[in-house]
Amino acid sequence: MKFQMMLVFVVMGLAPVLIFLRVSLSAYQSQALEQRISELKYHANIISNLILNSNFLVTKESSSASDINLEISQVADVYKGRIIIVDENLCILKDTYGLEEGKTLISEEAVLGIQGKSSSYIDTESEYVELVLPITKPSSQENEGLMIMSFSISNIFEIKDALTARFRLIAAFFAVFIVIAAIMTALYFIHPWEKTAASVERLSDGYFDEYLAESGFTETIHVAKAINEMLNKIQKLENSRQEFVSNVSHELKTPITSMKVLSDSLVSQPDAPVELYREFMLDIGAEIERENKIINDLLSLVKMDKTSGEMNIASVNINELLEMILKRLRPIAQKRNIELVFESFRPVTAEVDEVKLSLAVNNLIENAIKYNYDDGWVRVSLNADHKFFYIKVSDSGVGIPEEAQDNIFERFYRVDKAHSRETGGTGLGLSITRNAILMHRGAIKVYSKEKEGTTFTVRVPLNYIL
Ligand code: ADP
Distance, CA 414 to ligand 1 centroid (Å)? Predict the structure, then answer.
């Protein structure tokens, strides 16, 4: 980027200078040539007048030619060139070089000139200009002859060459200046980015607890802010991962510790009665079951953490699915005389992963029974519109304190740890539910009032969105 930036600065800085110098040179050349031609035409006019006044082209008398000779030789001298004067028969009367007098001039320009057509020709290769000017009598507009001026313009090109050399020097000076300025500017603009890149490199070495300095340009500040925000998220994720691992170990260790205590106490009593053995073995069995439940829940959670590629989508009758779940849970509800009601507003068929959705809804209804009062009620309802279906699970249970409502979906979170353990809760149920719903691109919300009851609402698209 540094190099590209420098290149852009150099090109942008140097191109206008070079264009300006080139345009100036060609403007000088055309201006100087124009001026030279107009000067020559001015002198040609004077000579023409002299010739016409002396009637030289008609009489061809050498006595009247002295003024003309003086004037043409002066002009030819000053402008370093040759002047030829021919009569209407293209016979050369005057040649300042004295080479062709008396001969007949044959050229296309001369023939056209005698017909009244003046012309000018600039030869930049040989560096001369040639003017063909008819000598016309103003009174009759008759062409009496022709004047041909051929003059060197090498001094114009000499000046142009000198200017070119000087301009090249100026361009070289500018080039050096612009390159230095470009390097300095590029370094100045790149520096904050390099600093940011160096900090990011340190991050990739694993120093996640370091934050980027939010300084430099507005853009680098934005980037640093975005990276810092990302770091915050990574840090939070890392913390929650560590917390999860320590929670998992703790949760898995608790039943094992209990079993160890139970078996140790049996071992320490060699003559313990069979009843005690039976009682302790039942307790050990319960702990094993609990351990099993935690492991199963963890496995479900891991499955739910995977990508949507793991989804086993099929068209499922949701009414039937809910009926099945309720049928399975009804005996548990009946044990505590809890009324379990299902309300379906319409038949719903949707594209879902049946196993995952069942697990999610099962957890909600199981919780509604678990955290309920004896003789209470649980209502499950199903509704749909053209895009989503909605499942609502309401209960008349203990409710969730407001401050806990944000945390209930976290892994291992339980409002009342002791009570939850009694009821066999692992604190993973709602995490599994939420992940399952999110994998369906759905949403879950909770409304609850302590000691009055809780309502969970779930919204899932009818058609699975990849
Ligand atoms: P658990 O295995 O402990 O039930 P969950 O993740 O399913 O774990 O629920 C987390 C916590 O949310 C529970 O410990 C409980 O305190 C609270 N909770 C969940 N559902 C309800 C409900 N319907 N009524 C009251 N509290 C609930």
Answer: 6
427 CA: nearest ligand 1 atom: 8
Contacts of residue 119, defined as CB under 8 A and 6 or more positions apart, other chains included, come to 109, 112, 113, 131, 132
116-125 contacts, C-beta under 8 A, 24 or more apart: 116/143, 120/37, 122/33, 122/153, 124/157
Whether 363 lines ligand 1, by a CB cut-off of 6 Å, is yes
DSSP state of 122: E
The number of C-alpha atoms within 13 Å of 208 and in the hemisphere containing its C-beta is 12
Q: What is the DSSP string of 146-206?
A: EEEEEEE-HHHHHHHHHHHHHHHHHHHHHHHHHHHHHHHHHHHHHHHHHHHHHHHHHHHTT
Q: How far is the CA of 142 from the centre of ligand 1 (A)?
A: 121
Please tell me the distance from the alpha carbon of residue 385 to that of residue 345, in angstroms, as a whole number.
11
> How many of the other CB atoms lie within 10 Å of CB of 145?
25
**For ligand 1, what atom is nearest to the CA of residue 416?**
16
* Positions of the chain with pLDDT lower than 70, given as ranges: 62-64, 208, 306-309, 419-422
Q: Which domains does the chain have, with CATH numbers?
A: 2-159 (3.30.450.20), 219-302 (1.10.287.130), 310-461 (3.30.565.10)
- Ligand 1 neighbour 433 (Cβ under 6 A): no
**Ligand 1 pocket, 430 CB below 6 A?**
yes
**Ligand 1 centroid – CA 400 distance (Å):** 8
- Give the pLDDT confidence of 90-128 residue by residue, as tens digits: 888 888 888 888 888 888 888 888 888 888 888 888 888
CA distances from 107 to 72, 112, 132, 223, 294 (A): 22, 9, 11, 78, 114
Pair of tokens at residue 241: 């991962």
pLDDT digits (tens, 9 = 90+) for 395-441: 999 999 999 999 999 888 888 877 666 677 788 899 999 999 999 99
Outline where 407-457 has alpha helix (H). 417-422, 429-439
Strand 128-136 vs strand 119-123: parallel, antiparallel, or unpaired?
antiparallel
**Cα–Cα nearest to 64, from 76, 50, 74:** 50
CA 321 to centroid of ligand 1, rounded, Å: 22
Burial of residue 167 (number of CB atoms within 10 Å: 0-12, 13-18, 19+)? middle
Cα of 453 from ligand 1 centre, angstroms:
12
Q: Name the residue with tokens 């030819």.
A: 76
CA distance 27 to 11: 24
Q: Which two tokens stand for residue 358?
A: 């069942």
> Is 413 a pocket residue for ligand 1 (Cβ < 6 Å)?
yes
